[in-house]
Design a protein that fits this description.
Helix content is 31%, strand content 31%. By secondary structure, it is an alpha/beta fold. The two termini are 32 Å apart.
């Protein structure tokens, strides 16, 4: 995969450690869910070092009053791509507990491997917020591309996309379709198989998060 200015692949030993456990087929649903949240928190910390709306406030310490920088109220919206994206929401709420949450529902047509939208519910005023679109797996890139395009049509101008595991095919597709969107991926896997699953991957993230298989 060629290099893209808007793609950041994390290379952090703690994230690599957690992903190794996440991949293991023996990992329980409870531990899998906890790991997804923990990895998401680490990714959020790294992803939002720049670009977070801030404001200054006056704080009175036991000794004097000083000016401090804080994250602006109601500045961030989390938009998980249903259903697996729901598993990443709490990991962001750890750092931004007041962030509102929108939902975009898409499913993959198993014959064409293309995404089809079945649900969209977004907070009012989302067009003025920093929007974090999240999905654990960036496989073909279809759902991510369509979700980002939907948000742009709603007027959103500040969008970041986060995935835990990405395939070169999906990362390239989103990067080229939306060069103005920063894409953060914890690890880049080898390729997609003939069914559109990431290899080596971790299986179906939604099934492993919610115990539906």
């Amino acid at each position: 995969m060629k290099n893209y200015d808007n793609v950041i692949i994390f290379d952090h030993p703690l994230i690599r450690h957690k992903i190794a456990i996440l991949r293991d087929e023996r990992t329980s649903m409870k531990e899998f869910r906890e790991l997804v949240e923990e990895i998401t928190t680490l990714m959020t910390y790294e992803s939002l070092k720049e670009g977070v709306p801030t404001t200054e406030i006056e704080v009175k310490t036991p000794l004097e009053t000083c000016t401090q920088t804080v994250v602006a109220d109601n500045a961030i919206v989390i938009v998980p791509i249903l259903r697996a994206g729901l598993g990443m929401v709490n990991g962001i709420h750890v750092l931004f507990p007041s962030a509102r949450v929108g939902h975009i529902g898409m499913y993959r047509n198993e014959e064409t491997l293309t995404p089809e939208t079945y649900y969209c519910k977004l907070p009012q005023g989302i067009e003025d917020k920093l929007v974090l679109v999240v999905d654990p797996m960036l496989a073909t890139g279809g759902s991510a591309c369509d979700s980002i395009q939907l948000l742009k049509e709603k007027g959103c101008k500040q969008i970041k996309f986060m995935a835990i595991i990405g395939a070169p095919e999906g990362v390239s597709k989103v990067a080229e379709a939306h060069p103005d969107v920063d894409i953060y991926v914890s690890t880049l896997d080898r390729c997609l198989n003939e069914h559109g699953y990431i290899l080596p991957g971790l299986g179906d993230a939604g099934d492993r998060l919610f115990g539906t298989k």
